[in-house]
């Protein structure tokens, strides 16, 4: 009993260390001056710390533009998805009508859809309509995977709402819209919020569409921009690692604060579905 | 306050299942009417149709003389207490109580007064600022009641409001609820599957089975004169014992055959039970409540039918002992009927023991074997 | 008292609410998919504009199925999917069991576990690219320390070790997801089952085999399905780590497809490949739906 307890704890700690170490190493390395970074057998701690890489990505590479692009694109796609998805999910979870399971099955099939399958016509279309390098060229394709995900998650969450409360509100004298506004919406809010976070993360991380439909540095999103830092001859590792750190810190904060919601969203999408 | 009249209510679900058939019920103004039946009998459907949460397939529902069929729930001026209480989890107790009045756009001051009065009456004053999840089951139950009371609606609809409470609290709330209703003189349509609740609380009891109303009567009458075998079997605990029986003979030789035994009946028995006239020499169903087995004391010895039984299991409850035994049921062509007798603890009985118990013929219920109607 | 009525108004509202979302999905997903299908029967090579453009029937598919690079990419994709998802399942299961037993999944550690999942795939790949850098990466440093020859330390230069890096990156990034899924599955197994098993004389190992694993099957299936579908479309790792190399040794279907379209500008041929990939994942999705027994059906409101 005692011995297995120790090994179980060791395994857990090891697992957490392995998960976390690459981030830690990236952070340390991003603070090292080039001489230490490119040294064979580099030192563990940066001596001294330098902010040069961070200065370079923001002032020389205008990395803030990429951050802005990611925020706008992921934000807009999430907004559209949550708005449309809430309506659909309310209908699917609350109302009784024929063809519901077909709709849900269709949504599930679309969510397993390979993104690469629509790259060629969309590229030709965006080329023709001069949408390459615009936000729209990313937001629209992002809906293909984000909207089914949103509908699915919200339907799962809405099913857990005790609809008796809405009935109670109706008997208490509220009309259908009033009952929805005063009772159902506050109850649905946590689920909507969780769904929005997950959708945002998925959009934020998207790579293929962002790579295919942007061609200049200023319109790239974060993942593409970081990959494109490398030139033909030189790889500016310091800047790459600084950029990775810059985008990982807010994600880490988000994950730290919202972990329960994220996990409930991940498992709601799966265990139930 | 107002009465509720339901007439000709039918409810058929799209899958073809009929939940209710030709249901008529009038709840008088100020009456506490309990609608009781086993789960799935359609009793909640009645309530939801009255509330406006379901649309009846056929029939009219009126509240206070006004037909409400086409009114949405919020315009029917009814209050409902749900089994799960359906308290708004994101609102405080005060806001829960005030919600109905707010929806009716009553002035702030009036709302405050009304809520305070109800909170006082229900002992919720100390909890007004709490959220429902901080309350105990009994307190939540009271908030649900308070939410119904505060609006002074035309009538209350209650859907198994006590079944989520533990046994002791349920008994306590039963009396509290009754006291409250007497005080407010409100019309209540109360749905439950618990026959004890029905008997103890209702001014009248309506028994529903398989979507059909079986009987509506005051509790005593339901108990003493069940309209049919379904009601007889559902009301009363432990349930009434049934067996196939036959009446033969005439005058002083009139006897009842049951369980392979013969009980003498008084000569004027058929005159006093005219319903039995056409059933001589025919099979009928005899029913006997467990408490109608009497000890064989000297005084009664001569005048009563006697039944020989062998006790199989004896349940000792304190004020009463339940003796389980089986009677052969040759007339029905089945092996045996399982019976229960409630015996006075002073009657010496033990498992495996042979016992003689007395039965008063007037306590025996008879039912038609085909229709189940009481005779 | 279950199920319920089907008033015309309720059904109409249902369709009305679902319509906008379905319309958008049709417009952004189904319509382009139709275009892909149409393009797959065309010859359309933007780099060679003088070449005849137009209907070529099944020519693109014929070319695709005789192309050894396609078959190689298919084999790579299947290999990658099986190996990485398999490893993630085993490691995820062990980690989930350990964490569940240890009960030390507090806020900070849970966040540490979630973090690899939450970052973009290519960011994870870039971090690993740095770790395996032959000159100053930590992993070659370790290999040097073990005394392995210089050539072995250039991990991305050899097909086998390049795959090892790709798979390691994927396993590092996605095992936490698997762990969390399985952990959620573990947490819904009632404790009294273990107590009952203990009273029945089952050892820890027996309890794990006879109770935990069978009851965990649904969670395992769902996690496997999600991960398999994702792994089958693997693109970011390959693009950021190896660019398909050395040579074509690490090309996967999605990568090959991307190259055909955006590098070679062969829209007809690329679309044919897209259609094949789509049909593959459709078959998988339908298999998934039937495997899950269309749970949605039984979950009508009661």
Percent helix range of chain C: over 70%
Low-confidence stretches of chain C: 1-7, 294-302
Provide the structure class of chain B: alpha+beta
Major sheet of chain C: 2 strands, antiparallel
Strand content of chain C: under 5%
Rg estimate of chain C, integer Å: 24 Å
Major sheet of chain B: 6 strands, mixed
Order of helices and strands of chain C: HEEHHHHHHHHHHHHH
CATH architecture of the largest domain in chain B: 3-Layer(aba) Sandwich
Domain tally of chain B? 2
Oligomer: heterotrimer
Globular, elongated, flat, extended or rod-shaped: what is the shape of chain C? Answer: globular
Query: In which order are the strands of the major sheet of chain B placed?
Result: 6-7-8-3-9-10
Q: Under the CATH scheme, which class of the largest domain in chain B?
A: Alpha Beta
- Count of domain modules of chain C: 1
Structural class of chain C: mainly alpha
Strand order of the largest sheet of chain C: 1-2
Work out the radius of gyration of chain B.
Answer: 25 Å
Molecular structure report:
The complex is a heterotrimer of chains A (273), B (375) and C (302). With 273 residues, chain A is mainly alpha-helical. Chain A has two domains: 1-50, no CATH class; 61-272, MetI-like (MetI-like fold), CATH 1.10.3720.10. In chain A, 75% of the residues lie in helices and 0% in strands. Chain B is of the alpha+beta class. Chain B has two domains: 4-234, Rossmann fold; 241-367, OB fold (Dihydrolipoamide Acetyltransferase, E2P). Chain B contains nine helices and 21 strands. In chain B, β17 (313-316) and β18 (321-329) form a beta hairpin. In chain B, α2 runs parallel beside α4. The two termini of chain B are 39 Å apart. Chain C has one domain: MetI-like fold (Orthogonal Bundle). Helices cover 74% and strands 1% of the residues of chain C. Chain C contains 14 helices and two strands, in the order αββααααααααααααα. A two-stranded antiparallel sheet of chain C has the order 1-2. In chain C, α2 (59-66) crosses α13. In chain C, 42% of the residues are buried. Mean pLDDT of chain C is 83; it is low at 1-7 and 294-302. Chains A and C meet through α1, α4, α5, α6 and α7 of A and α1, α3, α4, α5 and α8 of C.
């Amino acid at each position: 009993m005692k011995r297995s307890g120790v090994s179980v704890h060791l395994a857990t700690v090891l697992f957490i260390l392995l998960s976390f170490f690459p981030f830690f190493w990236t952070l340390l390395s991003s603070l090292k001056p080039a001489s230490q970074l490119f040294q064979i057998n580099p030192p563990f701690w940066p001596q001294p710390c330098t902010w040069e890489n961070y200065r370079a990505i923001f002032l020389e590479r205008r990395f803030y533009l990429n951050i802005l692009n990611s925020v706008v694109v992921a934000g807009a796609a999430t907004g559209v998805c949550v708005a449309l998805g809430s309506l659909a999910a309310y209908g699917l979870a609350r109302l009784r009508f024929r063809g519901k399971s077909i709709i849900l099955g269709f949504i599930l099939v679309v969510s397993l859809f390979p993104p690469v399958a629509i790259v060629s016509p969309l590229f030709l279309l965006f080329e023709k309509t001069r949408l390459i390098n615009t936000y729209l060229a990313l937001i629209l394709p992002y809906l293909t995977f984000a909207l089914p995900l949103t509908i699915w998650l919200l339907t799962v969450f809405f099913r857990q709402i005790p609809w008796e409360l809405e009935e109670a509100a109706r008997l208490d004298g509220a009309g259908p819209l009033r009952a929805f506004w005063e009772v159902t919406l506050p109850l649905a809010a946590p689920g909507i919020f969780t769904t929005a976070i997950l959708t945002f993360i998925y959009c934020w991380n998207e790579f293929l569409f962002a790579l295919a439909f942007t061609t200049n540095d200023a319109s790239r999103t974060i993942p593409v921009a970081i990959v494109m830092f490398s030139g033909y001859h030189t790889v500016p590792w310091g800047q790459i690692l600084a950029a990775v750190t810059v985008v990982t810190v807010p994600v880490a904060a988000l994950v730290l604060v919202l972990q329960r919601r994220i996990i409930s969203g991940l498992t709601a999408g799966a265990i139930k579905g | 306050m107002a009465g509720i009249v339901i007439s000709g209510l039918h409810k058929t679900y799209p899958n073809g299942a009929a939940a209710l058939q030709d249901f008529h019920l009038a709840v008088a103004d100020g009456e506490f009417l309990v609608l009781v039946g086993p789960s799935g009998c359609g009793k909640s459907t009645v309530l939801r149709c009255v509330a406006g949460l379901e649309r009846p397939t056929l029939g009219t529902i009126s509240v206070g003389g006004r037909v409400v069929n086409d009114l949405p729930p919020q315009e029917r001026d009814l209050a409902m207490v749900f089994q799960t209480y359906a308290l708004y989890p994101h609102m405080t107790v005060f806001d829960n109580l005030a919600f109905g009045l707010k929806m009716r756009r009553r002035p702030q001051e009036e709302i405050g007064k009304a809520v305070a009065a109800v909170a006082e009456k229900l002992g919720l004053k100390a909890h007004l600022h709490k959220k429902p999840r901080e309350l105990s089951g009994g307190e939540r139950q009271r908030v649900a009641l308070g939410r119904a009371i505060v609006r002074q609606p035309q009538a209350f609809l209650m859907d198994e409001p006590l079944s989520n409470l533990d046994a002791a609290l349920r008994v306590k709330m039963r009396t509290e609820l009754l006291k409250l209703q007497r005080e407010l003189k409100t019309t209540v349509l109360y749905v439950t599957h618990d026959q004890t609740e029905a008997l103890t609380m209702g001014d009248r009891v309506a028994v529903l089975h398989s979507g059909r109303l079986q009987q509506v009567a005051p509790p005593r009458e339901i108990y003493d004169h069940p309209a049919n075998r379904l009601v007889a079997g559902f009301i009363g605990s432990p349930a009434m014992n049934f067996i196939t029986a036959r009446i033969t003979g005439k005058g002083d030789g009139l006897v009842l055959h049951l369980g392979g035994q013969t009980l003498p009946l008084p000569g004027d028995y058929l005159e006093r039970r005219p319903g039995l006239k056409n059933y001589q020499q025919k099979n009928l169903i005899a029913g006997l409540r467990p408490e109608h087995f009497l000890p064989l004391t000297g005084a009664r010895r001569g005048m009563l039918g006697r039944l020989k039984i062998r006790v199989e299991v004896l349940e000792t409850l304190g004020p009463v002992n339940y003796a389980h035994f089986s009677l052969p049921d040759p007339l029905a062509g089945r092996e045996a009927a399982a019976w229960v007798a409630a015996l006075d603890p002073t009657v010496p009985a033990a498992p495996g023991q042979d016992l003689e118990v007395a039965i008063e013929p007037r306590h025996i219920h008879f039912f038609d074997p085909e229709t189940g109607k009481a005779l | 008292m279950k199920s319920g009525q089907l008033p015309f108004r309720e059904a109409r509202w249902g369709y009305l609410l679902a319509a906008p979302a379905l319309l958008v999905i049709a417009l952004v997903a189904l319509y382009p998919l139709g275009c892909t299908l149409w393009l797959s029967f065309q010859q359309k090579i933007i780099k060679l504009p003088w070449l005849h453009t137009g209907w070529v029937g099944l020519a693109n598919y014929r070319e695709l199925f005789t192309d050894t690079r396609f078959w190689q990419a298919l084999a790579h994709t299947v290999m990658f999917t099986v190996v990485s998802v398999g490893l993630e399942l085993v490691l995820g299961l062990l980690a989930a069991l350990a964490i569940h037993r240890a009960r030390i999944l507090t806020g900070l550690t849970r966040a540490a576990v979630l973090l690899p999942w939450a970052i973009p795939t290519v960011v994870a790949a870039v971090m690993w690219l740095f770790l395996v850098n032959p000159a100053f990466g930590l992993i070659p440093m370790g290999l040097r320390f073990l005394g392995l020859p210089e050539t072995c330390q250039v991990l991305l230069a050899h097909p086998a070790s390049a795959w090892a890096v790709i798979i390691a990156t994927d396993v590092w990034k996605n095992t936490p997801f698997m762990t969390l899924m399985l952990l959620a599955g573990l947490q819904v197994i009632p404790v009294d089952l273990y107590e009952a098993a203990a009273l029945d004389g089952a050892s820890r190992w027996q309890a794990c085999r006879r109770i935990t694993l069978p009851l965990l099957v649904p969670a395992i299936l769902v996690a496997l399905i999600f991960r398999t579908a994702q792994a089958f479309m693997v693109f970011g790792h390959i693009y950021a780590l190896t660019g398909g190399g050395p040579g074509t040794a690490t090309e996967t279907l999605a990568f090959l497809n991307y190259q055909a379209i955006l590098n070679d500008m062969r829209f007809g041929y690329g679309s044919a490949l897209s259609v094949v990939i789509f049909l593959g994942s459709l078959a998988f999705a339908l298999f998934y739906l039937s495997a899950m027994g269309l749970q949605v059906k039984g979950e009508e409101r009661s």
